[in-house]
């Protein structure tokens, strides 16, 4: 494997990759409305010589290079969030912009740049005979990730019946290699009350007041310590071997968190006592926490116990149809995962990267100080499709992708051309590094 030849090939495709990325983000592609993105990607895959290109019933675009039975996959979700307040943008988020070094537009970092590097990485593999015998490379543009992380891979694994040997997530990694992330889940707490006229509130049972007590306990979960005398022990306890046998990986990924993200109520009028109140909780989980343990943790709070049967704690379900009309219902639970630091996939990606670019993160000049202050191999702050790939299904997953986490969901989103080139080269080198 000639690493210099791989680097030269990736650099030589910079213009094509830039044009491809700009073509994708030119049209809106929010979750459940990604068809224009999918069609653009399928056309590019066919143009650059993929051996097979298909769009599955959920709407994921899947391209194959090679004909072996074993699969090395590269995943890129190609849906985006909305643009938010347009006044926060200094340019048209769908027209975007291009300079000598960077590309702007909604989705360039999160996460359409990943599919661009993966498609051209696979092209280089084919041109330079880098796909090992018995293997084929799968590049997937997945849908609905922003709505429901991993739903697409549940469909690919269970319905398309595709199970790769391992998967590279091309989510943005700021020039590093990421081997895991905290999990998350979406919890709902419902409280019942009894309405009455607001002029005599003592005749009723105000659900909002009950919820106020519960919210203070939830806040304590996030903010308290875990000392012996603390009644509601904080989530930081999971970093302590006394409470968590998986504390080492928990320390690597970081402690769990919980926050109230939405609140709802019902009341006959503004002149009445509220007869119900509900909240949504965003719960981030570290190693050693499960959906059962997180629900039980809320149910055990003193205020929840105090109000007894008037409180229900549950997990949300997701059942929104994809752009094809496919409904694939799933619980809103996105498990924590981490591939071991000494796993063969981790080592292979590190070897491919360091052989090409050395031991430190690289990138555009404006990114270097931040990137090189961090270890080469680290973890994501946010959630990815790895929650399904490895978290639910145990398929090894590792992350390396163009762009920056801080650009995700932000106005004036941008990425860097050098990242597209770097990732395409590393992707091309990875299969031979893995299969020796």
From TrEMBL:
<dbReference type="Pfam" id="PF07687">
    <property type="entry name" value="M20_dimer"/>
</dbReference>
<dbReference type="InterPro" id="IPR011650">
    <property type="entry name" value="Peptidase_M20_dimer"/>
</dbReference>
<keyword id="KW-0479">Metal-binding</keyword>
<dbReference type="GO" id="GO:0016787">
    <property type="term" value="F:hydrolase activity"/>
</dbReference>
<dbReference type="InterPro" id="IPR050072">
    <property type="entry name" value="Peptidase_M20A"/>
</dbReference>
<dbReference type="InterPro" id="IPR036264">
    <property type="entry name" value="Bact_exopeptidase_dim_dom"/>
</dbReference>
<keyword id="KW-0862">Zinc</keyword>
<protein>
    <submittedName>
        <fullName>YgeY family selenium metabolism-linked hydrolase</fullName>
    </submittedName>
</protein>
<feature type="domain" description="Peptidase M20 dimerisation">
    <location>
        <begin position="180"/>
        <end position="302"/>
    </location>
</feature>
<dbReference type="InterPro" id="IPR017706">
    <property type="entry name" value="Peptidase_M20/DapE_YgeY"/>
</dbReference>
<dbReference type="InterPro" id="IPR002933">
    <property type="entry name" value="Peptidase_M20"/>
</dbReference>
<keyword id="KW-0378">Hydrolase</keyword>
<dbReference type="Pfam" id="PF01546">
    <property type="entry name" value="Peptidase_M20"/>
</dbReference>
<dbReference type="InterPro" id="IPR001261">
    <property type="entry name" value="ArgE/DapE_CS"/>
</dbReference>
